Amino acid sequence: NIEFYPHQVEVVRRVLEDPIGRYLLADEVGLGKTVEAGTILRQYLLDEPNGRAVVIVPKYLLEQWNQELENKFYLSHFADRVQLVSISEINQVSRNANIGFLIVDEAHHVAAMAKSSDRAQKQCFEICQSLAHKTKDLLLLSALPVLGHEQDFLTMLHLLDPTTYRLDDLVNFKEQVQNRQEIGRALLDFRSGAKPVVLKPKLA
Q: What is the DSSP letter of 136?
């Protein structure tokens, strides 16, 4: 039921071949993050006959995810091994549940809750954080650009790897982003046909 695009095949291959299946899928809107995540989820369920998965999505996307998971990936074949819940109803997921795979769509919404003054939102983030750090495989889906949203981006990376990306390390993270921008700008000039007069200062 799916016609794959090459970039989707590459994403799925990379995640499935990695023994550490913790990724942020950051394709832009409309490039098929849901298909990528659904494909990886189905393969997880096939590989782990007793594995359980939870998919957390914004409430307005709940029905769309429900239809896509069934129509494209036949998840009803896996009985009740997949729990689909909205972010606002995340407390329905037992913190003690033995979850092997977690997917969070629009993960920047969850990340923004970390600094919220609303107690209910803060609690939603804390539950998601607990689940994310406990589960073996984790996919976060977000098209949020890093520039101008460093705090939320750092929080998403913290969900993936709390040791490397600490929530209290925003200053250092912003510096890393700035450094990578400069490297990225330099690398843009390394292309076929570039003149030596351009390449020499960039190499330096």
A: S
40 in Cβ contact with 10 (< 8 Å): no
Under 8 Å CB-to-CB from 130, ≥6 apart: which residues? 95
Distances (CA, A) of 162 to 3, 117, 133, 145: 36, 22, 8, 20
3-state helix, strand, coil in the chain (%, to 5): 55, 10, 35
Which pTM does this prediction carry? 0.86
Q: Is 184 exposed, middle or buried (0-12, 13-18, 19+ CB in 10 A)?
A: exposed
- The 10s digit of each residue's pLDDT in 121-166 is 999 999 999 999 999 999 999 987 877 788 899 999 999 999 999 9
- Rounded CA gap, 167 and 155, in Å? 6
Structure tokens at 56: 């957390």
